[in-house]
Amino acid sequence: MSTTPQEQHKITTQFIRQKKQRHQAITMMTAYDYPTAQLVDEAGMDTILVGDSLGMVVLGYDTTLPVTMEDMLHHCRAVARGAHRALLIGDMPFLSYQVSVSEAVRNAGRFLQEAGMDAVKLEGGRERLDAVRAIVQAGIPVVGHIGLTPQSVHQLGGFRMQGNTAQDAQRLFEDAQLLQAAGCFGIVLESIPAQLAGYITEHIEIPTIGIGAGPHCDGQVLVLHDMLGIFDRFKPRFAKAYANLHGDILTALGQYKTEVESGAFPAPEHTAHMSGETWDQFLHQVGQ
Ligand code: KIV
């Protein structure tokens, strides 16, 4: 007998940590709305990240910087309605955790209290430890994010790989250790060399989730719109497209347009009719 999504067991942060201990790969995918959350959940992904990447792939901004708390909560609520099994992680947007520790805790709490998330993610290493500690102390699980941190795109000089020098690599390794000590239950490693990601993964106890960080992480994450080939404006080198929905959707839209223009749509099977009797009654009523 098949089980409904609600009946399948909910993924917990403990389960994610156990997967690392058992050397089982952790799967994470972004989702931003009800139907994509349903699909990602049904596909059996361990975790869904409602990433602030939605600013770029859904809202059309050039960076993630304009994304607000209200944007994030709106999309998180829709995802929470669609996904019942995966661990749900809400991405804290720019300026929601950098201004003060108390604001960071308040905003992190809103993801759980108002938007059905199970955990939050925030960007940065040693400069975020106070915020991470305080959020964890409030009982909210936190995922860290180091390497290419898109909210610092202007400071980093663009969306470019990080940790290329021995000094930068050491700094990132130390950041990973510090985030673990501050209480993070996992860390996203974005756009760093594979050897460095492997080294960090081997030398910390909490799981690493890689994106553009090679195969030696404990898990992988991709942006849904990149992997489905929906978003054609900007495609990171590391994002493998498993489908070409941009092309498929364009074909479908073109076919619809042609059929409307030719009269082929709607066909009889897409059309409802009143009974002859009701129609005659209507014509009588309107005096025809
Ligand atoms: O916003 C996002 O989707 C992310 C992932 C790329 C890790 O932070």
Strand content: 5-15%
Tell me the domain tally: 2
Biggest beta-sheet profile: 8 strands, parallel, barrel
Taken in chain order, the helices and strands follow as HEHEHHEHEHEHHEHEEHHH
**What's the total helix number?**
12
CATH class call of the largest domain: Alpha Beta
Multimeric organization: single chain
Radius of gyration: 23 Å
Q: What's a concise summary of this model?
A:
This protein is α/β, with parallel strands linked by helices. The protein has helices at residues 13-21, 34-42, 54-57, 69-82, 101-113, 129-137, 153-156, 166-182, 194-203, 224-227, 245-262, 276-285; strands spanning 26-30, 47-50, 87-91, 119-121, 142-147, 186-190, 208-211, 219-222. The protein has two domains: 5-243, Phosphoenolpyruvate-binding domains (TIM Barrel, Alpha-Beta Barrel); 248-285, no CATH class.
